[in-house]
Automatic annotation (TrEMBL):
The lineage of its organism: Bacteria, Pseudomonadati, Pseudomonadota, Alphaproteobacteria, Hyphomicrobiales. It comes from Bradyrhizobium septentrionale. Keywords: Membrane, Transmembrane, Transmembrane helix. This is CoxF protein. The chain crosses the membrane at residues 25-44.
């Protein structure tokens, strides 16, 4: 009844978990920079960016 079960699936090592976290943080920062860049370009171009022919 009290048997030890092995975890299902792949078990990552501490180094792999750290690497995954660093990669996730780097992707989040890159995405944030890209959003800020698009926002800044939109602000610099002004309201003219919304006036265009369809």
């Amino acid at each position: 009844m009290d048997e030890k079960r092995e975890p299902d699936g792949i078990v990552l090592t501490e180094a792999q978990l750290r690497s995954r976290r660093q990669r996730s943080i780097a992707i989040a920062l890159a995405l944030g920079v890209m959003v800020l860049l698009f926002f800044a370009v939109t602000i610099v171009k002004g309201p003219g960016v919304l006036v265009r022919p369809l």
